[in-house]
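User: Structure tokens for this complex, please. No commentary.
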Amino acid sequence: SAVISQKPSRDICQRGTSLTIQCQVDSQVTMMFWYRQQPGQSLTLIATANQGSEATYESGFVIDKFPISRPNLTFSTLTVSNMSPEDSSIYLCSVAGGIEAFFGQGTRLTVV
Amino acid sequence: KNEVEQSPQNLTAQEGEFITINCSYSVGISALHWLQQHPGGGIVSLFMLSSGKKKHGRLIATINIQEKHSSLHITASHPRDSAVYICAVQYGSNYKLTFGKGTLLTVNP
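Assistant:
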């Protein structure tokens, strides 16, 4: 199994600012993902974080808005840039290990 | 379009009741996950299924591949079971998941 530490657990931010969310895994994993859950909606994949190369973004998500770093096999960051109230969501880090999926505790972001 | 449908959206039960949450999907999958989301947003993986049935404590998950349907059962429900239960599916060897909207379960004492 993999244990994921995601920080911060919650934050309230001013519009126009940026927030960086960290995801630390206790073991090396190949696949790391970032998801967003808008209020009342299902989780949606933002991107796959690739170690040593640019993240792979899903349709509707762009690097300028959601830059992602993956410097090694145990750590990744997601930045939510130039925030607006529409970015208020839960952001979730997930990893795949073997045949199972593991999840962080989530970051509840409120933009005011 | 690959869709995951859950029912019911909301479920209120009395302590001790038997709970069933359903999940249907539209195309063939390699695996199905049942997840539990707590009010703070954190998610815990309950089961991963590719066939048959799994049991863990009071939780039972079943999947029917031919009918593209899975159920999550909770026996002798307890207020601490109150959470959002999410079904998610996996296609092929791709670890990316497609999620249902979740079922909000409230168990009253």
